[in-house]
């Protein structure tokens, strides 16, 4: 295995300053991180690829068959993170859910910074964490602005002067509190020291997310703005970049795609009483034997 040195990792802050908008892909395993790094469209300076990877709490818990309720702590996820960081030098953005108790968050920030994580995202909810895309169909509570700002300050203080960024994720649109509430909160989070803002929405049209970007960038043109277009996949990367977003995270697609492919394989073998029919959909065995250096 070619281990990536921590100081050789691509710098996320520098990327954000050099590129108008970053493409970020979920990676839940070392092999998915290798794919995120290696898959490119086209060649040369105009080729397209992914600029960073996303460590999702949803996919990390789902692949362990655990509910997405903040059941995994950073210590539970660090072993897998270290495996991913060892084979992929793209910046890694870590989904920290609510960040937990402030006292715990202070320690977790130090752990993640030492591991080589490039950014942490914490969301402004409290109580038992539920997946945001469930919206108001389940009980979800938003943290007070003052308490969440305190958590941001603690996080930025305990990163020990390193380059790791801390992004504040606002759930006002998820909880249908409106654009004005979202904008007010995000301005407060920026003043508290957040390095960037993630705004989340479950509306399928994407209209409110575009309007948020327009209004936020009027007052904070230089603050990195991040979105996760799971609910509005019809909006192109170019559309979101033109709206003012600085990073677009495709937050769970690698695991969702892998599950669909595995189910297709398992079903086909049962249906045909053999593996012959599904072979064209599978990676050739010679390729998998050559995938990782040292296998042959």
Automatic annotation (TrEMBL):
One Gene Ontology term of the molecular function aspect: phosphoenolpyruvate mutase activity
Swiss-Prot/TrEMBL keywords: Isomerase, Metal-binding
InterPro entries assigned to the protein according to its UniProt record, in alphabetical order: ICL/PEPM, PEnolPyrv_PMutase_core, Pyrv/PenolPyrv_kinase-like_dom, Pyrv_kinase-like_dom_sf
This enzyme's EC code(s): 5.4.2.9
The keyword Protein biosynthesis appears for this protein: no
Keyword Metal-binding: yes
PANTHER family found in the cross-reference section: PHOSPHOENOLPYRUVATE CARBOXYLASE (PTHR42905), PHOSPHOENOLPYRUVATE PHOSPHOMUTASE (PTHR42905:SF7)
Family, as annotated: Belongs to the isocitrate lyase/PEP mutase superfamily. PEP mutase family.
Protein name, per record: phosphoenolpyruvate mutase
Organism encoding this protein: Pseudomonas soli
Gene: aepX
